[in-house]
Amino acid sequence: MATAFFDMDGTLINGDTNDQSTRYYVERQLAAPDFLEPLPGYVQSFFAGKLKVTQFLDYVVSPLLPLSAAQQQEVLRNLVRERIVPLVKPGALKAIRAHQERHDTLVIVSSTADYIVREVGRALGIPHVIAAPIGVDSDGRITGGVVGTVPYQEGKVICIDNFIRERQLGWEDSSAYGDSVNDLPMLLKAEHRYAIDPNEQLRAHPDFGKLICQSWL
User: Fold this and answer.
1) Taking the alpha carbons of 62, 66, 70, 71 in that order, is the dihedral positive or negative?
2) Sign of CA dihedral 59, 63, 15, 116
């Protein structure tokens, strides 16, 4: 049984879940309109591979912190159902089904906060997620703060290696799917490497020729 690792934003999703979530919080009056002002700068830093990821995660979680655990879960379920699931790429659904039919182990690997990635995984039938670990209290209420390694750039490989070791899996016959330079460490470790609708920075990278280019739109 092989393992398939999927980046989320730009790969499975035609767009960015952080963009969707922050705008959703403003529309639902969980954050003021000026909350969106730093977002373009963060996006630019991400695609350049220079994002200060812990700082960004503190930013995106902040509208949820005043809510109870039940309120947080309701907001997240509605966010994913209303704004993110409609953006899933048709090709992503085909790839997921193909790996499910092979009985592969499917994993979403994303630097996005784990509380969003888990909801996306449930919606897509992907049981395993490797995502930015955000603090929760004993009641399951999200409290913020990064509490472990974020799967960002080289951190993706660190987190995947831990996942593989804990489950006695391996990189043999593995597949990896990503769209940006931040996914390259993961892509280059996999046996089957797919650049999905790659962005400009990934296309310009010297290692782009080592990848199989596909479109899932």
Assistant:
1) negative
2) positive
DSSP code for 13 = B
Per-residue pLDDT at 74: 98
State how far the Cα of 128 lies from the Cα of 106, in Å rounded to an integer. Answer: 6
In this structure, which amino acid lies at residue 99?
H
Pair of tokens at residue 131: 């995502």
25: tokens are 């919080």
Q: Amino acid identity of 38?
A: P
pLDDT of residue 43: 84
DSSP 81: I
Query: In b/e form, how buried is each residue of 119-154, taking b as 16+ CB within 10 angstroms?
Result: bbbeebebeebbbbbbebeeeebbebebeeebbbbe
pLDDT along the chain (217 residues), means of 10: 94 96 97 95 84 94 98 98 98 98 97 97 97 97 97 92 93 96 94 96 96 98
Residue ranges per domain, the chain? Answer: 3-214
Other Cβ atoms less than 10 A from the Cβ of 101: the count is 8
Burial of residue 19 (number of CB atoms within 10 Å: 0-12, 13-18, 19+): middle
CATH class (in words) of the domain with range 3-214: alpha beta
Are 128 and 105 a contacting pair, CB within 8 Å?
Answer: yes
- Identify residue 132 by its one-letter amino acid code: A
